[in-house]
């Protein structure tokens, strides 16, 4: 029996946004590994072992998945969104360091609809011109790095998508980010808060930076800040194709 | 009969990367509008009118689609990848400007797997940390804007994904971009050329900026430049989750 490891993106929440490629991989899996709420999205069936684990143990989870693949299992590591965007793929590759045995395994990454794309689609097309994507969680980097990136992004006139904008344990980071953005982009710049995108709880709110409050975001929110040309038309927000 | 307009992303090429949401919308359509090669990906059937059009007529195409929706048709505008990333969604919203009648229509954007996500998955996880996404085509913006964005992106230590890196009509732009990147990031920085991602022609090549040649990219190529921490492990390229 030859094992394999697939790192699969489940998309932002809706079943209709799971790619057929991922559905096929899940149907062939012997073992599914991932953070509890993502594993909960996989239907149980005979012959499939589910391995839900807590958050913040990504490297342990990756190693456990690789051990199972090395033992001959067909393992699928599930992430929400896209596994290559602030998710499990990097953790699996980190776990491969120094392990030539694991590097020789059949390992594939299956892309998914990452949250910012679904959020942008729900709002209109705010990422329709050059943009950047920043993880505002400071678990893995100092605030100074985040602030430097925000300032460069503003001066490059990128639209910006923010993941993990605000957690209960460090709510002040997002407030500081809004202060930097107001200073760099002005109070009239549009900002969209997209919560629980593609789920029944979806809520999309667009305001100006002058109106934005830190409390408008939580950990289920993706935040999109427009570039200098981003505008409203009807109920939509979009960034024109030209630099403006 | 109530018309509707759906702007749908077909993903980078493989059928297995088309979301069920998009498949459902196409099955319900009366009319499909888009650039010739994308409309060619939609299977003909009785009751479905296909409207392929040439490239660089995005705004005309958007207006024609809105006219049909206003006349009661169920219109799907197709883009490759994600319609909100350098594709048709922004053109449709531009066409809504000043047209309150069209703004009142049932208009939805359905996200898709954009090329950089499929390219990153095929290479490993080079977009696993903060990144930016730049359209290198200078059809819609001056070179100076592109150069400024490249320099800010490098100084922010973003990984970078480039769309439309090189066309026959303006091949010098990508050569200039490589020069800027070598000056800002050094010769050892990793760069991945991902051509025809998810199709039978897929080809993924990773080299250093010192080894990169403009000819390695064409208009079917997505280019991904790593950040300062991006590294190889086995046959993969990835950006670690921490700032390094």
TrEMBL record, chains A, B:
Broad class of enzyme this protein falls into: transferase
Annotated ranges, domain Tetrapyrrole methylase: 5-212
Annotated PANTHER family: COBALT-FACTOR III C(17)-METHYLTRANSFERASE-RELATED
SUPFAM superfamilies: Tetrapyrrole methylase
Entry keyword set: Cobalamin biosynthesis, Methyltransferase, S-adenosyl-L-methionine, Transferase
Protein name: Precorrin-3B C(17)-methyltransferase
GO biological process terms on file: cobalamin biosynthetic process; methylation
Pfam families reported in the protein's UniProt record: TP_methylase
Pathway field: Cofactor biosynthesis; adenosylcobalamin biosynthesis
Listed GO MF terms: precorrin-3B C17-methyltransferase activity
EC number of this enzyme: 2.1.1.131
Annotated organism of origin: Tabrizicola piscis
